[in-house]
Amino acid sequence: MSSLISIAKNLNHSLTNYTNIHDEIFKKSIRKTMPIPFLFKAINFQELGFKLQDIHNDLSRFKTQVNDIRESGSEDKNKCTIFIEYVSKLMYAVQLLQGITRNLLLKSEGDNSYKLNDHTELVERYQKAVEEYYSLGDKMNSLFT
User: Fold this and answer.
1) Can you tell me the distance from the alpha carbon of 61 to that of 64, in angstroms, rounded to the nearest whole number?
2) Which of 5, 51, 52, 102 has its CA at a distance of 20 to 30 angstroms from the CA of residue 11?
3) H/E/C letters for each residue in the chain?
4) What are residue 27's phi and psi, to 5 degrees?
5) Mean pLDDT for each consecutive 10-residue tract of the chain (145 residues)?
């Protein structure tokens, strides 16, 4: 059975991958202000969607592992509970980003059913989910330091 610390290290790797995807979608760039097709490559939303699914699968596995540790009593139950809550909130944010990515993929393929209002609403829900896992992350960090 893995230790909570080793799972946290693996979680950090997944979090880094997720953050890179978030940045690729939302970061400000000159490409978004002044698109020059021959100079910049388009965002591959399909590839990002696959990567997000892999991250979601990893998070689900981490959550199960920590739950097993909590039930075994080999680690502090409070730490395990907060860790599980954090992973759950992060999984929700990943799911919302998957939805955004899926919709942007469809839009890039010519599907005009995804409207700006829908996008704005989904991004607001996503930003709230990010704030929630950030908040819990601060609490989790204080337990592990």
Assistant:
1) 5
2) 102
3) CCCHHHHHHHHHHHHHHHHHHHHHHHCCCHHHHCCCCCCCCCCCHHHHHHHHHHHHHHHHHHHHHHHHHHHHCCCCHHHHHHHHHHHHHHHHHHHHHHHHHHHHHHHHCCCCCCCHHHHHHHHHHHHHHHHHHHHHHHHHHHHHC
4) -65, 150
5) 86 96 80 54 89 98 96 90 96 97 90 88 96 90 77
